[in-house]
Amino acid sequence: MTRSNWSVPETEVLQRVHERLDDDSADVLATIVDVEGNAYRRPGAKMLLDEAGDGVGSITAGCLEDDLLAAAESVREDGRPELITYDLMDDEDDVWGLGVGCNGIIDVLLEPLTETYRPAVEAFADSRNVAVLTVLEGGDGPLTRGDRAYYHPAGEGLTTPEGTPADEWPAALADPAAVLAERGRTDTIEVDDLEVFIDGLAAPTELVVFGSGHDVGPVTELAAKNDFHVTVVGFRGSVDLEDRFPDADETVTTSPSAVADELDLEERTHAVVMTHNFIDDRLTVEQLLDSSVAYIGLMGPHDRFEKMLAEFDDEGRTFDEDALSSLYTPIGLDLGGGSPYQIAHSIVAEVLAVSNDRTPRHLRTREGHIHDRVTVDSPPQ
Amino acid sequence: MTRSNWSVPETEVLQRVHERLDDDSADVLATIVDVEGNAYRRPGAKMLLDEAGDGVGSITAGCLEDDLLAAAESVREDGRPELITYDLMDDEDDVWGLGVGCNGIIDVLLEPLTETYRPAVEAFADSRNVAVLTVLEGGDGPLTRGDRAYYHPAGEGLTTPEGTPADEWPAALADPAAVLAERGRTDTIEVDDLEVFIDGLAAPTELVVFGSGHDVGPVTELAAKNDFHVTVVGFRGSVDLEDRFPDADETVTTSPSAVADELDLEERTHAVVMTHNFIDDRLTVEQLLDSSVAYIGLMGPHDRFEKMLAEFDDEGRTFDEDALSSLYTPIGLDLGGGSPYQIAHSIVAEVLAVSNDRTPRHLRTREGHIHDRVTVDSPPQ
């Protein structure tokens, strides 16, 4: 199979699912729905398996995939979703343990890719948060494995795809779904004997890069590989931004004073300011400090920002502590690199840490799990 | 000009210089020889400019390059090296200051690319440290701007390219050259009225990745972009490693017990262990702990390493504190990402920080200069 497709940005996996739905393919979607102990990937990790045996995305570092292909084949044939458990608890177990090298039990849901998944990929394509609810065990109720419902933050309660069971979904699932959609996390909720996997698909984190110098290229490239939705903003005569920064999802050419009007500067927006033009940087930073963006990274030495603050002060412009605390200059983590790619690597690493609310440090010094575990309260039984 | 060539890994710039020397080209080499204040790049940053006006590498984030092309043209015509100073101290200066956005004075040496530079690129190609000594000001002595000498750690004292002044080089330059070659840093040394730029070209940092799972791909790709010399080591039936990991400089297929024999595990070697096979990982880690490698990153949860230590203990194997302190598990910086590329980004970020002797943290919390400044004692006058 095409191993090169296994390690792709997560955004590409969902884009591929979207394409294959449009192709009316007979693909099988594999999703990790539970991990006990440790594993390479966390619940929600997806892999799309096609009839040719090619896979896009990965749910382990490799050793389960071949077995998954066989399992996918049977799911494709009898057309019914399957829940498979891989017990990797025993590292000496040479069937699985050696290959994965972690102590974990992994539950994987395999299902034929159908139209019932379209609302998920369409929300993702529109950068809307969404929670995908999938029945793992129906128990004695009318719902059966693979039945699906959605929670859209903009809507009210749960919605179900056309032609699928609607009334039977417990309304109590909406609250946990709302939390998971917002945070892009997953959990499995039980209501009586109904067991539902809730897959929160948060819209990709927004990264807006202000600047059009060649040093913007590596930042855009590395950010896209890390699943950011990247917008490159050029000023004045910036031309060919799409051609020069092919990894950008969007490009905008505007004037430094129109930044706040032209762009959606939201709480989930992360901004990197690297125009290398003091006045353009100052105009941009001023509007960013007035906005609610989560992160403002400013390239250049700290005394350059001090000069900016002095000029703001002369003009009577003041900013609250929260805004100023969101500004990082010099930009990036202290990794010691000096080449364009090393600088970009340290910038993207900083944005990753901030967007994930992490304190950058060696993982060996961190207590607890590497991956966040979000657990929402189960609704009253 | 081809802006896409500006942001390339530094290793590619020197590889390109090597190729162009072989092509007997009429290119011009630009090197930052001094930075006062702050700038995007540090001394030693290089850019190769060809007759067509294409540049490879970058010495600023963009705005100086066009002027450099003009300057390069005149250097190409009269065939003599030139030293150009760009004063960016005044950020309001709309000729340069606005474009670079840093308070700095940058000295750039422009010289026709000649055979006198070949020893530098050949040492780099062979992964040998070397210091390139270039005369900036000859003063009243016989040496003139652009005259060149080399310090090879393996050799004795300074050597000079054939057909260039040899006896006139002050022997006192050998000591600072030795330090700079080792550390890959630069400095300008004055002996009486002779001014010499010493460019230490340390061999690329060695990164050895143990494993052949698809998750090795993103690690190899991102490490290569960050100028590591990457070797992928596969065990047993690993096939097609070159095809599967095209960004690797070398690939080796061996047995887990032969790691120490097959590979040069030196002090500048950084190792990433991600075979996802407990026994293979243990055998590899044991040999790495017995070696003098600078860094051992082990993928997997910490309790997995605890189990390894317990087994070493059962076998009566012990390791000293230094060795154990070089082992990082879970591997990577705490950036919070969970996709294959995010995991790889955090691994490469950790190796960068360790290889540059940095404590990973936000640069805004760091005191002093972003770039290391190495100053070696000037020889007695």
From TrEMBL, chains A, B:
Stretches assigned to the XdhC- CoxI domain: 28-87
Recorded superkingdom: Archaea
Organism: Natronorubrum aibiense
Occurrences of domain XdhC Rossmann (ranges): 207-351
Family matches, as Pfam families: XdhC_C, XdhC_CoxI
Protein name per its UniProtKB record: XdhC/CoxI family protein
InterPro entries, A to Z: MoCofactor_Util/Proc, XdhC_CoxI, XdhC_Rossmann_dom
